[in-house]
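Deliverable D5.2: sample structural annotation.
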Amino acid sequence: METLLIRENPFDQLNPCSIKVGKIAAISISKKKGIPKSNVGSAQLIEYHGIDGDAHAGNWHRQVSFLAIESIVTMRKKGLPKLRPGAFAENITTEFINLPGLEVGNKIKIGNEVELEVTQIGKECHTKCAIYFKVGDCVMPSEGIFAKVIKGGTIYISDEIRIED
């Protein structure tokens, strides 16, 4: 089993909600909607479309989804110790960023070229997922965020993520 540890945040340990720099912990894609995504080492983001080869890409406001590794660790502690990035169908798993603290309109810059704009915080779960039925909770509706691709390019695991107002 892969063990993901949360490291101490080197950016601002006194105020974790103000953190505006983090990194990509995992990148995940799938060919079909409604299933966990597979982890990949890199991905091509296409302007105003999303991640090349991902089922959620298209001309709409939820082209790319984000969830923090810290949220996944919370769910592991609730009874799902083998939970992995991509299990919530998120595309980009972040580390060190307070995703639910972002606002619609915030810009997300990844690496040297990719830029996204936050379009939605959380989502309504019309049908409860298997994770919800197993532990009675799910973090994606309250802690996941969605964005559209403003400037495309290639992203890699461990790329720096910067949040701009």
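Annotation notes: Helices lie at 69-77, 130-135, 140-143. Residues 4 and 73 are 8 Å apart (CA to CA).
The annotation will be released with the project's public dataset once the embargo ends.
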